[in-house]
Design brief:
- There is one protein chain.
- With about 300 residues, the chain is α/β, with parallel strands linked by helices.
- It folds into two domains: about 70 residues, SH3 type barrels; about 200 residues, TIM Barrel (Alpha-Beta Barrel), CATH 3.20.20.80.
- It is built from five helices and 15 strands.
- The strands form three sheets. The protein has an eight-stranded mixed beta barrel with strand order 8-9-10-11-12-13-14-15. Strands 6-5-4-1-7 form a five-stranded antiparallel beta sheet, with no helix packed on it.
- α3 runs parallel beside α4.
Amino acid sequence: MEQYKVIVPKLNVRKAPVADIKDKSNIITTVNEGLILELEETLNTPNPSIGKWYRDKQNQYYWAGGLMKLTTSTTSPLVRLPINLPENYKLGVDVSHHNGKIDWDSLKNGGASFVYIKISEGVGTPDAKAKENALNAFSKDFKIGYYHFCRPDSRNGGTVESDAKAEANEALTIISKLPNPHLPLVLDLEDQQNWDTPLQPKAYLQWITTFVDLITERTGITPIIYSRKEYLDRKLPKNHNLQNIKLWMSYYPSNPDCTKVGIPNGWKDWAIWQYTENGILGTNAKIDINIMKNDILV
């Protein structure tokens, strides 16, 4: 397969080539201008006079009129996109010190337009590469946002409320020394191999609400919650009041489909979907890849 770049604002992705390019009967979704795809030419098309057709690894088809072939030296593309992409979606990544050295140009060339950057974890553990990643992403014209890995408990100050406020203030202090974000702050709510929140559902909800309220009061912007369906369903009370906070879902199916993302109890939709932790963009090692459904710029 060879690399092709989308050169039109929107290019249809189809189940098969068609004889008339105006035929919309088999359109699966669309992809945006600038995206780099790995494709091979398809033979025996129904109407060769309208031009060539190309196929990706998922047997989805693209009309050549919306593509430009790239040289073999061009950076590698994204391995895979979900099907049923939402209209006006954005492609992005999230990074931390775990990603090591990042090739920002190849992320951009691969179609990414936004970056979420880890800045902190709990209290007293700033991410070692937060400033470097933020400055590099900002210099390459990415839309940037920051995320804080939450450790909800009562260690800081002795109460759930004081602990949540301590973590929120920690995040705000770090952000004040970084480029202004374009995207809302994210609460990363999940467990780790050797850690999970000790709080019961009612106290866990209190911790999240306290954190969100303080951030919203200080910045005027409501944060986003990052997590997975199973975790939130297990940790939160069923009658929680977080339904108006936007969701960033973590879910890695073998056949990603934007219409089949499980939503936790209490919510109706997702704003961002992290659909793989093994994405490839350019010369970078495996990286988290995300679809942003709606424009949530601040």
